[in-house]
Amino acid sequence: MNNLNLYRLVKAVSNAMDLISKEVVGHNRQVAYITFELAREMGLGKDLIKKATLAGLIHDLGIFYLGQDYSDLRFDQKDNRHAEVGYILAEENFPDEDIAKIIRYHHHDWDELTAGSAGGAGESVNREQLLLSNIIFMANIVVNLAARRKRKNILLARDQISHRIEGIPAGRVNNEILAAFTALQEREYFWLDLTDKKRCLMALDDFFNGSNGSLVQEKFLQLGQLTGYIIDFRSSFTATHTSGVAGIAEKLAEDRGFEQERTALLKLSGYFHDIGKLAVPEDILEKPESLTDDEWSIMRTHTYHTYHCLNTGDELQEIRDWASYHHERLSGDGYPFQISGEELSQEARIMAVADVFTALTEDRPYRRGLDYDKVKKILQEMARDRALDEDLVAAVTDDFTEVNSLRFNVQNKAGEYYQEFAAESQELLQRD
């Protein structure tokens, strides 16, 4: 496997973003679906359709850092600044730099964009990118109107939705986009697909399965790091955890003579391993004391969600398994699948040790990282209980200083980026 499919990785991230609230599940994929259909109806080229759809899948990337209620779609407006925050995060970390620009302007009116008054948009972004942003803007309007419809049957509600679209003031949406929607809204399949969350993705799958959109190693690791930031930056309690796990997993793989490609895929799994934690409420993630039984049962679901978020294509099966099995144990007492013994690959065992080692040695807001003696005792007990692989535990304890130094350096670098990102985001959010 020399390359990984960009669409399938982005779809995994989008799947996780939809876990944040049951009330808004499917929002990203619905916006992506309408964006895709509008772009096709407008006769845009394949490359532009891809960019628009990928941006649509993660257009609300910045919403996780605003410390607010996700229980409905009221966050989805320009004044919320989440598009700007998403731009900051994606600009340096998404493999295609155009995606960040498209995300940035997805809540701006067309006249505002083309006049260059949207934060200098007319100067820094070309017309095609602005058009794709405005398509997502239009898709958001339709999705939000559909979510608020009074009639459950979408076919009975479409006339009301279309009437509301006709009332959009001139200049908010590009005329080509409005014309494309006018044509689409006449077709029943469009509305039926829109309200079938699985079918939304099937339409996109059909398109991307026939297109070349693979990533070389450097690029898929870049997307993996972005995913790690999405997971970690949501909570100060885990602001650099994913980076630490990925770094240690990479070292253990290298020390065991894994070939470069397999090592890179294992590192990518480290970036994705906690993606299911987007389904866990922040008050549970940030609770300094012991979790209640109910809270712990919710926390334990994160590996299950990681598995299904990454279940987007055959080529991701190994990454899916390595990432989601990090709480499985050799004894069979882990979760969520109770896999044991020889069923756990070397890569899954590495991920488990990297996760525990990082959790024990990293600083948390409520405690300092544990010292060598305490870490060694805990890890060796887990090895004796057949929770962790004995040889891998010996590897990290015998070489503790080097492994822990690597973890510290990787997490320190991620922490510096987190502080810069947090400061820039807060400054942005405080603007008038």
Automatic annotation (TrEMBL):
Residue span, HD domain: 238-360
Top-level lineage group: Bacteria
**Limits of the HD-GYP domain:** 216-412
Which Pfam families does this one have?
HD, HD_5
Entry-linked PANTHER family: 3'3'-CGAMP-SPECIFIC PHOSPHODIESTERASE 1 (PTHR43155:SF1), CYCLIC DI-GMP PHOSPHODIESTERASE PA4108-RELATED (PTHR43155)
Protein name listed in UniProt: HD domain-containing protein
